[in-house]
Specification:
The complex is a heterodimer of chains A (about 200) and B (about 210).
Chain A (H helix, E strand, L loop, with lengths): L11 H4 L3 H12 L3 H23 L2 H17 L10 H19 L8 H4 L11 H15 L3 H11 L5 H8 L3 H18 L3 H5 L1
Helix pairs in contact in A: 2-3, 3-4, 3-5, 3-8, 4-5, 5-9, 7-10, 8-10, 9-10
Chain B lengths: L10 H13 L5 H13 L1 H18 L9 H17 L20 H16 L21 E5 L5 H10 L3 E4 L6 E5 L5 H9 L4 E6 L2 H4 L1
Antiparallel strand pairs in B: 1-3, 1-4, 2-3
Helix pairs in contact in B: 1-2, 1-3
The chains are: A mainly alpha (about 200), B alpha+beta (about 210).
């Protein structure tokens, strides 16, 4: 791949791009300007890939679902009515496509966490206790349902309000709060001790 | 069904439920004020908040990422463009660059003509020499592009155009955008004003350079 397979780790800064920038690029997408679309693609890729990898736990599916999502943004831009934020609309498409892909899969639940764990080539400098805590947290997340994982990541990484999450997942706001509550309780029970070591 | 709503919100439970969004700073001001007031007087919830912050930080720092795959998307766009060239898309989905707006007469353009006609008939004459059919609409260069909400009524669209002293130059495009001409000197303010309207999805300046 000419544009590299180097993982671009999203950060909190890239997790919430300035709204005017993505709307400006989207105006170009509506006029079918391919350069504007590429810029929008690159702006959203880090956040969407993180969201989808956490949700799907299958790296081989992430690219397919991510590209399907952003192709809809390109091909069906007229269906964005402006009733929500552009990011909410895009994440809602990604969520629907990811859930559809999960339903299509008919394979037994296995050790997906291996796909997500930082690999052996993380470098000698990666502190052991950090890696252990990462592994433990990823394993704990892996035991949650995809819906619970999505709520946790959308809240704590993507910093979305519960109303936006409800819109993305097409569910009542109380369901988002309840999922978050159960997920938190589960994660903290699973992580008992690990977080204290890490911090 | 049959759920009985309490008259007052249990502050303990509300704090417990909203804690994650207090941490991420995504609560409404009134919710935040209630939660913070409760935290100030509840040691149990304060301890809970400290533990929750650790979890939030740990989740946010998880290294989860994949590589950018623009090349695959670029190939897909090329393939879609080729297919569109071979099999013409239905008129409603047909796409064309902005510079070609006005060349294609579609059913949408007929609708636009009706809207323009109604608008011009009901508006006070802009200039004494301006008459229906006196000059083609394309003679006026568009300097703004707007997208109205799909459910906008004709009267609301007319009001927005009149209030902005704007004229419809072309549209709707395949993306349901309209090209307008607004007074050059007031374009920035006019577009700002339009963006605040609930019936406007997008309002952006349009210059010759952007039409390439």
């Amino acid at each position: 791949m000419s544009d590299g397979s180097v993982a671009q780790w999203p950060t909190r800064e890239t997790s919430s791009p300035a709204t005017p920038e993505d709307l400006r690029l989207f105006a170009g997408v509506r006029a079918h300007d391919r350069n504007a679309f590429e810029a929008l693609y690159r702006l959203y890729h880090p956040r969407l890939s993180r969201f989808l990898l956490n949700l799907l736990h299958r790296p081989q599916l992430v690219e397919e679902v991510l590209n399907d999502t952003l192709f809809v943004v390109w091909d069906r831009s007229e269906t964005f009515r402006g009733a929500s934020k552009l990011s909410t609309w895009i994440f809602a498409i990604a969520y629907r496509k990811a859930m559809k892909a999960l339903r299509r899969l008919d394979e037994p639940i296995e050790d997906h966490d291996a796909d997500l764990r930082p690999g052996e080539d993380d470098g000698p400098d990666a502190p052991m206790n950090n890696r252990r805590a990462h592994d433990a947290l990823l394993a704990a997340l892996g035991r949650l349902s995809p819906d619970h994982r999505a709520v946790v990541d959308l809240t704590y990484f993507h910093e979305m309000a519960y109303r936006e999450i409800a819109e993305i997942m097409d569910c009542p706001v109380d369901t988002v709060k309840t999922r978050m509550f159960h997920a938190r309780r589960h994660l903290r029970r699973m992580m008992d001790g690990e977080l204290a070591d890490w911090l | 069904m049959g759920r009985i709503l309490p008259f007052t919100i249990d502050p303990h439970r509300e704090t417990r439920d909203l804690m994650p969004w207090l941490i991420s700073g995504r609560l409404e001001p009134d919710e935040r004020a209630r939660v913070e007031a409760h935290l100030a007087s509840c040691d149990e919830c304060s301890r809970e908040l400290a533990a929750e912050r650790e979890l939030a930080g740990a989740v946010a720092e998880l290294p989860i990422a994949t590589g950018i795959s623009w090349a695959a998307m670029r190939d897909r766009l090329d393939q879609a463009a080729k297919q569109e060239a071979i099999v013409p898309a239905p008129p409603v989905r047909q796409r064309f660059p902005l510079r070609q707006i006005g060349i294609f007469l579609t059913a949408q353009a007929a609708l636009l003509a009706a809207v323009v006609s109604i608008t011009l008939r009901s508006a006070a004459p802009v200039a004494p020499y301006h008459a229906l059919g006196a000059a083609p609409a394309a003679a006026v260069a568009g300097n703004a592009i707007v997208i109205f909400r799909p459910d906008i009524s004709e009267s609301e669209m007319r009001r927005l155009l009149k209030d902005s002293d704007a004229r419809l130059v072309d549209g709707p495009t395949a993306a349901n955008a309209y090209v307008l001409h607004v007074p050059d000197a007031e374009r920035t303010q006019t577009l700002e004003h339009l963006r605040k309207e609930a019936a406007i999805v997008l309002a952006e300046p349009l210059d010759a350079a952007s039409l390439r």
